[in-house]
UniProtKB/TrEMBL annotation:
Identification of the protein by name: HSPB1-associated protein 1
PANTHER family per record: HSPB1-ASSOCIATED PROTEIN 1, HYPOXIA-INDUCIBLE FACTOR 1 ALPHA INHIBITOR-RELATED
Gene Ontology cellular-component terms listed: cytoplasm
Taxonomic classification: Eukaryota, Metazoa, Ecdysozoa, Arthropoda, Hexapoda
Subcellular location: Cytoplasm
Record's function text: May play a role in cellular stress response.
Amino acid sequence: MALDTILRDLILNTRVPLILDQFPLEWECFEGSLHDWCERFDQEATDPPAFELMSLADSRTPQWERKRAKATHLSMQQFLREYGVLEEDHTHWAAYQYKRAHEMPANCLRGIDFSCFGFPEHGNDFSLWLGSEQANTPCHYDTFGVNIVVQVHGCKSWLLFPPETPLQSTRIPYEESSVYCLDNFYAPDPGKIQRYEELGREAYHCNLQAGDVLIVPRHWWHYVEAMSTSLSVNYWVPLKVDMDLALDEFLVKHIVESFVKGESDEMKQYLLNPNQMDDISSKPSELFAQFERAVQNMESGQSNRKLWETDYLSQADWKTLLNSVNLTVRPLEVMAYDEYKLLLSANSKRFQTDTSPPEPSPISSTWELLVSSMCAPRVIAGMKREFFRRLQQSDPS
């Protein structure tokens, strides 16, 4: 069996995160140093990119994207000079991340191809992430796909939890295809540390080094933080089960949009992630038309792109396949409990009670709880079941 076929089967059937240590990639654009890549970016880019800046002292809540400020445009080489190493006098971290392939200069993408993992039909549907030390993504899970993460330069800390872990899910801020949680792993409140410690019995962790690849199974929670200046590339493998989950996302989108229609920009900026601000349907009928198409696609099993099956191998067959690979592919294991507590203790020192003012909220806590309750995954799943029950009853056939 070819290596790419073996890796594809391992990726689609794994039930825990996988690490591919020092995977032999040959992606031309990443040959050389990070400085070389940044220099090519600057030579080809029409305008210098705008980096997000996030205050290191803003620690009372997760560092949501809505709290970040757009920096003055920096060239990539300026970014390396100013943020390549965070000194004591730095007040912010900086990042240029979640950039789709079509947003990037062609020379900075040359050779990127996920067919080596068994997925040749990726269609350049991948994202790049560049950030300084402490650049982080609040804990969340991705609604769709299996995530393949290639660490190109630097190191990132990944803290992961299985789907059933009792984290405090929220859809505020709302981002299509991401379910966030309220737990603040960047700076845990020392007064609430016991709750965080209780999660440690099912915490997985790795420091992903340059050259490593991480596979994140569907619906696994993850908090990600750069331990040094970091560049990575990721691809979400589209799955057949995503067609069903697309209906859930349309229901959530309709609920959230019903709350922001006609409200102030301040309200929208609080409820919506910045990348959703321009994606509000102008009329409810447009959203219902999208929902109807999603229902038809799910019932017909049709899609405009290749969708992959999962869980078609038994765990015994999967382990046999894993042992046959002539590479270092290893399942992550639950991290040692003492190591987990040390990580929490180190991060909780960032929590600044006196100097970090609470984030102003344009809505009441009751309103926020209502939105999160209406959009809770189990509530949405119940609405969908009721919809299909009624749909079947109305079908004359």
